Amino acid sequence: MLVTSTETVHGREIVENLGLVRGNTIRARNVGRDLTQALRNLLGGELRAYTGLMTRAREEATGRMEEQAEDLGADAVVNVRFTTSMVTQGSAEILAYGTAVRLG
């Protein structure tokens, strides 16, 4: 499955627009991890544990979006975007969405 943030696929023609596809996940922080990250926050620097958490969440949301596109018979998902929102204190939703298309 080809996934791109552009509206087109270079060198390929979009022959059918299959509509919006999306995938999401909601992730919560780990209490033990929060203690070490709070210290890191005071001292400065990257919060690596949270970076990893968000990376895995984006990958899961993207995978779910791709599954939905495959169910529609798509060859690609174009114009892919990500959004993040807080659901409750200490948890965030990652949403991946784009347009499923068939290529010629």
What are the key terms here?
2 helices, four-stranded mixed sheet, Translation Initiation Factor IF3, 104 residues, alpha+beta
Q: Within the CATH hierarchy, at the fold level, what is the topology?
A: Translation Initiation Factor IF3
Identify low-pLDDT runs: none
Tell me the CATH superfamily: Hypothetical protein apc22750. Chain B
- The pLDDT mean sits at 89
Characterize the largest beta sheet: strand count, sense, and whether it forms a barrel: 4 strands, mixed
Q: Total number of β-strand segments?
A: 4
Q: Class, according to the CATH hierarchy?
A: Alpha Beta
Gyration radius, to the nearest Å?
17 Å
Computed structural class? alpha+beta
Number of domains: 1
Number of helices: 2
What's the architecture in CATH terms? 2-Layer Sandwich
Biggest sheet: strand arrangement: 1-3-4-2
Binned strand content: 35-45%
